[in-house]
Amino acid sequence: MVEDFDSAPTGTFQKGFLDIHRWTEEFRQRARAWSSIEVTPEGSGKALRVCVSDPQAFTAGAGSFLRLAPYYPPETDALRLRVKVLTGQVSIYVGGPTAYYGNSDVYSEPQTIHASAKLEWVEIICHLNHPTWRNYRRSGFSTEAPRNYYNRWAQEDVGVFLAPDSLGECLIDDIEILALGEGKPFASFAPEQVQEVKQIVTFEDGKLDHVFNLYMAAAEAEWFDESWIRSRHLRFKPMQLEVNDSGLKGLNVLECKGATAEEVQCTGVRTSGADANGIRLTINVHAPGQSNSLVGAGAIVPMDFLVFVAADGQAFPWESLEPSAELRAKGGPGFDYNLTHRVIAARKDLNFAIYQTRRYLKPDEWTHLVLPTADFTCIYGQGSMRDRFLNHDDLRSEEVIAFAWLNPWCRQGRRDEPVTTSVEKLSFVKVPGTAAEHRSFWQVPDVKQLQHRDEESPGLRKLHIWLPGDPEPPSLLR
Predict the structure, then answer these.
(1) Are residues 149 and 220 in the same domain?
(2) Reduced to 3 DSSP states, what percent helix, strand and coil does the chain have, rounded to the nearest 5?
(3) What is the mean pLDDT of the segment spanning 336-346?
(4) Is residue 179 part of a domain?
(5) Do 122 and 213 fall within a single domain?
(6) The pLDDT value given to residue 476
(7) CA-based radius of gyration for the chain
(8) Do the beta carbons of residue 282 and residue 425 sit within 8 Å?
C-alpha cells in the first residue's frame, strides 16, 4: 500500500486546494475559493476528498492534488487508485519530472470517471510504462527518444493530477502499486556465478589517470567554463576526487566528494571494452542531507550508472571535450569534459552513444553490484551511433569507452549538504542467464511497434506513445 489516508489527520490536506507553482501569490489567494482538498472519514477509515468548483482552478494547466513516494521497485508497472465520483467528472493521471536525459517529464494517460446515480467505488489503473505521454521541457539529449519510461528515471515525488476537464467532487483511497509482469526485480547473482573477464580499475596504484568529472547539461553550457573561471557562485561544481584507503578491508577507493545539483554531473573512468555481459563494482554513498525512500525498502540513495560507447575500432576524441588552455590558466579546478548537448549536438566528428541503468543503495553501506549489460538502455546516440538510440539497440560491451556514475543530488532534504561517493573497484564480468532474465525496469521489446501522436498545447509540445492493444490516448486539450 502506497497511501490509504488512514493515518492522516482529518481536515485540510497539504495546502488544502489545487496549487500551481507558476501562479502569483495574489492569484494563489483567489484560487483558494475554486477547489478544496481534505481528509474525511469514510466507512471504517478515511479518504481524500477533492472538490473543484470552478474551472479557473486550471488556469495554468492540470493541478496536482497529491504527492506520493518518489521511488518504486523496478517491477512496479502501474498505480491502482480507488475513486468514488460524487458529482460531475474527474480525469486523473500520475507522473512528474524524470531525468532530463531520459524523457524530461512523463505521465500516465488520464482516466476519466463520471458520477452515476449509484455512488460506488471504482478502480482505475495509471500505467507507468504504456500508454504514456511526455513533454519537451528539458529535452536536449532526449528530443528524438523513440520511447517513454517513467519508473526508470523518476526524479521527484510522484504527482497525482486532475486534468483541466475535471469539475466536481470525488473521494480517493487505497493507492497501491501493481506488478503486471513487465518490470522485474533486479537480477542477483551468487559470488561463484560471477566470472571476471577484465579489470577496469582498482585504484590500488593511487593514480587518477583515467578518472574524470563530466558536465553534461542539456543547455546550460556556461557552467563548464565557469567551473574554471570561478567569477561567481557555481551552480554546478565538479566533485573533489582523491584516492584513499577507506574501502573494505582497507583497500584503496576513489572518493568523490562535494555538493551536487541536478542530473548534469557525473564521475567516471575511461576504459576499453571486453567480451562480457555485466559490470561489477563495489560502492558506498554517504549523503547525510538527503531523505529518499523506496516503497517497501525504506531509506535509499538512487544511483544512475552511465556507460559510454563508441564504434568498435574508432578512437574517441576525448581531448576535444577538454577545457582550452586559456580556461585551464584561470585556475579551476573545473570539469574535465564538456558534453553539454547544446555544445556537441552539431559536431560531425563525435560518434558515440550513452546507456543508463539505475540501482537503489542503502546509505552508508558498502554494496557489491553486478549490473548486467542488458539492463542498460540507450539514452542518446550521435553520428554513426545515432541509430543505436533510435532503434533502442542493446549495449555491446566490446564498444565501451567509459563507465560513470551520476553523483546523487538531493531531491528531498538539505540540498547544500556534501555527498561522498566511494568506488572500490570495477571490472567486466560474465554472469549466467538470458538478456530477458537480466532486465529489471521495463524496456519496450520493439520500438518499431510503438505508436506516436504529437499534440501542440499551450506552453509545451506533448507526445503520446502507446503500444498496439493499448487504448488510443485522448487529447489533453479537452
Answers:
(1) no
(2) 15, 40, 45
(3) 95
(4) yes
(5) no
(6) 63
(7) 23
(8) yes
Q: Residue type at 144?
A: E
Long-range (24+ apart) CB contacts under 8 A made by 389-392 are 389/144, 389/145, 389/146, 389/353, 390/144, 390/146, 390/447, 391/146, 391/447, 392/146, 392/147, 392/443, 392/444, 392/447
The predicted structure's pLDDT at residue 459: 66
Nearest to 308 by CA among 397, 427, 205: 397
Same domain assignment for residues 348 and 243 = yes
DSSP per-residue letters across 190-224: -GGG-EEEEEEE--TT---TTEEEEE--SS-THHH
Indicate whether 73 and 204 sit together in one domain: no
Report yes or no on 362 lying in a domain.
yes
Q: Quote the domain boundaries for residue 363.
A: 191-438
Cα 321 versus chain centre, distance: 25
Query: CA torsion angle for 246, 252, 256, 257 (degrees, to 10)?
Result: 30
In this structure, are residues 100 and 87 in contact, taking their beta carbons and an 8 Å threshold? no
227 and 275 both lie in a single domain = yes
Residue 327 belongs to a domain with what CATH number? 2.60.120.260
pLDDT of residue 389: 97
In a domain, 132, yes or no: yes
C-alpha cell at 304: 544512475
Q: What is the pLDDT of residue 137?
A: 86
Same domain, 170 and 113: yes
Comparing 254 with 63, the larger pLDDT belongs to: 254
H helices of 341-397, where? 341-344, 386-390
The residue to which cell 532530463 is assigned: 100
Q: What confidence score (pLDDT) does residue 363 get?
A: 94
Which of 43, 48, 130, 32 is CA-nearest to residue 82?
48
| Residue 16 CA to its chain's centroid (Å) | 29
**Per-residue pLDDT reduced to its tens digit, 397-434:** 999 999 999 988 877 777 778 999 999 999 999 999 99
Number of domains, the chain: 2
Identify the CATH number of the domain in which residue 109 sits: 2.60.120
- 17 and 157, same structural domain? yes
In this predicted model, what pLDDT tens digit does every residue of 83-117 receive, in sequence order?
Answer: 999 999 999 999 999 998 888 899 999 999 999 98
CA distance 432 to 194: 8
Nearest to 103 by CA among 379, 442, 474: 379
Stretch 308-320: mean pLDDT: 90
Do the domain assignments include residue 478? no
The model scores a pTM over 0.90: yes
Residue 79 sits in the same domain as residue 141? yes
| Total residues belonging to the chain | 478
**How far is the C-alpha of 247 from the C-alpha of 185, rounded, in Å?**
28
Supply 210's cell numbers: 583515467
The pLDDT value recorded for residue 458 is: 66
The C-alpha atoms of residue 279 and residue 356 are separated, in whole angstroms, by 12
In the three-class reduction of DSSP (H, G, I as helix; E, B as strand; rest coil), residue 373 is classed as: helix
